[in-house]
């Protein structure tokens, strides 16, 4: 009686109300809460934690989680080891759009229909409900896997394609509960962890789940192959440009052939329709210089005939000229004798 009177007087005091307002204002900035194994029975103090992202309330005596409805920024919610028998309605879970990991194992959940309200969680990737009465029911895993579409891991195993696609019989490697799909979704809690450590742990868990699926899901493997093929097909012109030598040679050859065909008349006029006073050797040398290679002459038989005629004409002109006197090599010893003979 005395204790109750003192408590009533304290709570009605002005300073007490001011103290409560300060606490509420501080709680709005909370992003990480960890109350593990403290035998708590209520979560009412978390109603004002609107910025909460990581909430660990494991191994307590919690029965109602409705106060978390205002914590719409939750990413991880750990409620394992409590006395929760029913989950809130779809309105509660529909507000938790960022929730990725939910730990509900070792609770008193028994109705499978009540668990299906989790299908409105748009980002839920990992869920644990082992050691609950509902996990012993027939079709428990099949119902949850095909109700919660974003879900990738349930209890101790990654969800396989065989559980999603009906009547699809896969090899042993891709079957449900294969050892390749085993994953500890809820590791043991470590004392003294900070908010940064928890966020890092969440990222590692999600990354590990995606890595296991990438190597053990036939659907994802085929999709990866198709994406790789389409990317290589789209970028193949860029890969071909890495060999400029052969391609540039081919381009230049085709370009020269096109130019030759377009200017056949001009080339014939410049080279073969020569004027009498024109310099014939210069014309022929210029025309040969313009060509790429001597092998290209085989494609122009008319040009070869004309060149042969020109060469014959040049030879005849060289014959008509006066021959120069031959040069004799005089040795040094015979130079004096030759000069004396000339004088005689």
Automatic annotation (TrEMBL):
<dbReference type="Pfam" id="PF12799">
    <property type="entry name" value="LRR_4"/>
</dbReference>
<dbReference type="InterPro" id="IPR052859">
    <property type="entry name" value="LRR-IQ_domain_protein"/>
</dbReference>
<dbReference type="InterPro" id="IPR001611">
    <property type="entry name" value="Leu-rich_rpt"/>
</dbReference>
<dbReference type="InterPro" id="IPR003591">
    <property type="entry name" value="Leu-rich_rpt_typical-subtyp"/>
</dbReference>
<dbReference type="InterPro" id="IPR032675">
    <property type="entry name" value="LRR_dom_sf"/>
</dbReference>
<protein>
    <submittedName>
        <fullName>Leucine-rich repeats and IQ motif containing 3</fullName>
    </submittedName>
</protein>
<keyword id="KW-0677">Repeat</keyword>
<dbReference type="InterPro" id="IPR025875">
    <property type="entry name" value="Leu-rich_rpt_4"/>
</dbReference>
<feature type="region of interest" description="Disordered">
    <location>
        <begin position="321"/>
        <end position="344"/>
    </location>
</feature>
<keyword id="KW-0433">Leucine-rich repeat</keyword>
